[in-house]
Amino acid sequence: MNLPNAPFYRRWSFILAGVIGLAAITALLGWRGLQETGAPPASVSTLTPTTVTSPPTTGPPTSLEPTSQPAPVLWDKQGHDTEASPGIRTPPAWRVEWSFDCSNFKRLGGGNFKITGTGVFGRVDVQAYDVKANGSKTFSRAGFGHLQVDSVCRSWRVTVLPG
Fold first, then answer.
1. How many structural domains compose the chain?
2. 54, 114, 43, 121: which is closest to 85 by C-alpha?
3. Does residue 86 lie within any of the structural domains?
4. Which pTM value belongs to this model?
5. Is 125 helix (H, G, I), strand (E, B) or coil?
6. CA 151 to chain centre
7. Phi, psi values for residue 128, rounded to 5°
8. In a domain, 1, yes or no
9. Contact of 100 with 128, CB cutoff 8 Å
10. What does the alpha-carbon distance between residue 66 and residue 84 come to, in Å, rounded to a whole number?
């Protein structure tokens, strides 16, 4: 007496093929996600250097004091809800400065304010519950990533600066 064949979905080869297919799809999606947060390729310049000569100056310099220029801002955003930054490239040393005003939740003792991130900003984890507060955190890792600000506060401001 022969037993009837099991339906196709109960055969071990079909189940094994499904598991392998799901693992391949998961690995592909994870790999693509890592590529998006990775550093973009460095560009190589093939231009030859040129030399420009200028006539000598006859007078002394106008100022002997060094000019101080403000540090370039990597990202600066003011808001009142959830906000995600565009991709930001950071130098080897950078800092995140923040402030928020949750006076709209004063009767409850304050409101929630949170900053997280991906890529180089994965180590950023600011969480506060207060009526008003501000602060700063310094980091020492160059890279590329995105910031995410989540808050119920009336207003907040987040700035990413070098150094």
1. 2
2. 121
3. yes
4. 0.57
5. coil
6. 17
7. -140, 150
8. no
9. yes
10. 37
